[in-house]
Amino acid sequence: MAPGTALSPGPAPALALALLLAAAARPAAASGLWALGGWAVGAGGGQRGRSPLPAFSKRRLGFAAGLECDLATNVVGQPLVRQQVVPAVREFLQNPHPAKPLVMSFHGSTGTGKTYVSSMLVRYLFQGGLQSPYVHQFSPIVHFPHAERLEQYKENLKHWIQGNLTNCGRSAFLFEEMDKMHPGLIDVIMPFLGPSWVVYGTNYRKAIFIFISNAGGELINKMTLDLWHAHKDREEISMQDLVPAISKAVFENPQSGFWKSGIINDSLIDFVVPFLPLKHHHVKQCVISELVQQGLEVRPGIVQEVADSIPYFPEEEKIFSSTGCKTVTSRISFFF
């Protein structure tokens, strides 16, 4: 979405705030949720936030298997993502009384699949996917563009989260481009992320929060490149070393939305999910997938040319794609 196309801070901030709060207070249609055990509100109107189906069901098993298969098939070169996201979501859904919301933070360079995985996840969880009334996306460029309005944004965000969790405890909140978020803003949602029963009268333990950020991408790329220089496979990267390093990098970066954040300091993020840089053969897989989706002939020569047209780093070896698979779709048109 282009800057200023939604919640524009233009001439009527008071009106925008009023509309925001009104939307937060408005109950959504109950048929928007999938009828999954513990995530179900039946079509035709069950009670919001209730869990009328068994805590564990065959349908839920099918959900996890389907998500895992989709990730393996359509998310190129990210085995660490599959290893973390699927078990995390499966375990969270199986627990009828989770101790806290599920909080995940996706980190990596442009074009490695962070936004794609988050949209895939909500598509499996919610009927209508990103268009579901229970899925809420926030962009710092669109919703929080002006640093001088930080305090107003904090109030807006707190009321938005509270209002939507009151409507449905099984809501999902996606925070995009956390590396562009004003430092200090995101900490206003800390009370909703911890292990308490209620906040402001709302039970929020069944919600999902996903943060998406390019911050930490340079560190991930460096550690992956170091492995390559050591003649090791990129998948051999140590999660024990990588995750604390990412958290430290974003916590100490004054340009990051997590700068000096209590969310990091209090370990409220359950899973820090690294997205690795993509190699040439991964980009070729993206090209093939895009050609198939567009109904175009998969010709090896075209696949090679499109993959070769993308910049790679480091400059000398050209090992990893500088833009992941982000520009594949736009580049294909030049070869047909």
Brief overview:
By secondary structure, the protein is α/β, with parallel strands linked by helices.
Q: Could you characterize what this model shows?
A:
The protein has 336 residues and is of the alpha/beta class. The chain folds into two domains: 54-275, P-loop containing nucleotide triphosphate hydrolases (Rossmann fold); 280-335, no CATH class. It is 41% helix and 9% strand. It contains twelve helices and seven strands. The protein has helices at 13-25, 58-74, 79-94, 114-125, 140-143, 150-167, 217-229, 239-251, 262-265, 280-293, 300-308, 328-332; strands spanning 102-108, 135-138, 172-175, 208-213, 271-275, 312-313, 320-321. A five-stranded parallel sheet has the order 2-3-4-1-5, with helices on both faces. It has a two-stranded antiparallel ribbon with strand order 6-7. Strand 6 (312-313) and strand 7 form a beta hairpin. It is globular, with a radius of gyration of 21 Å. Residues 1-61 have low confidence and may be disordered. GO terms for molecular function: ATP binding; ATP hydrolysis activity. Keywords: ATP-binding, Endoplasmic reticulum, Glycoprotein, Nucleotide-binding, Signal. Its main location: endoplasmic reticulum. It is found in: Endoplasmic reticulum lumen. InterPro entries: ClpA/B, P-loop_NTPase, TOR1A_C, Torsin, Torsin_1/2.
